[in-house]
Specification:
alpha+beta, Nucleoside Triphosphate Pyrophosphohydrolase, four-stranded mixed sheet, metal ion binding
Length: about 180
């Protein structure tokens, strides 16, 4: 996504307050805006993780959830998640929204993530991954039962939003994982 794409500014209740560029939303302390994360599971109950591209301004080369991005002006969460899944991985599967949360993560002088993030889950059924190299440096599957241990061992290699959403998935929505 280009830094001049127009994102949706919101308040703590996710009410739309206005719009601003992606660059402005992530500048300094950040401005609260809409985002989403997708957690994709294969038939072996493994989670698809992606390593973010080295070109990313925030968290380059960190490991994260399957797909994450922002709804653009005029898009709802579902439309944006479906669009971005195809743009990043080259396929589409049905997605189900599970929960939303708000977080703030500062990255020194570079900028911040300050997002109202909707979390979606989806089930892969043999789709071929065509990772977009401008977005994804690498990808891997990891067993659901191993994700928590991996996060504990290598916390510094994972995005803060993925760590928060995975903790909540395990605590409140384990039975809703495909």
């Amino acid at each position: 996504m280009a830094t001049n794409d127009v994102l949706i500014l919101v308040n703590e209740r996710d009410d739309i307050l206005g719009y601003d560029t992606k660059a402005a939303c992530h500048h300094g302390q950040g401005r609260l805006h809409r985002a989403f994360s997708i957690l994709l599971f294969n038939q072996r109950r493994e989670l698809l993780l992606q390593q973010r591209s080295a070109e990313k301004l925030l968290c380059p080369l960190y490991w994260s959830n399957s797909v994450c991005s922002h709804p653009r002006k005029g898009e709802n969460y579902n439309e944006a998640a479906t669009r971005r899944l195809v743009e990043e991985l080259g396929f589409s599967v049905p997605l189900r929204r599970v929960f939303s949360f708000e977080y703030h993560a500062q990255f020194g002088d570079i900028g911040a993530e300050y997002e109202h993030c909707a979390v979606f889950v989806g089930q892969m059924n043999g789709e071929s991954i065509q990772a977009n190299p401008t977005e994804i440096a690498a990808w891997k599957f990891i067993g659901v039962d191993n994700v928590e241990q991996e996060l504990l061992r290598n916390q510094e290699h994972y995005t803060p939003w993925f760590q928060l959403e995975w903790t909540r998935m395990l605590r409140d929505f384990r039975d809703q994982m495909p």
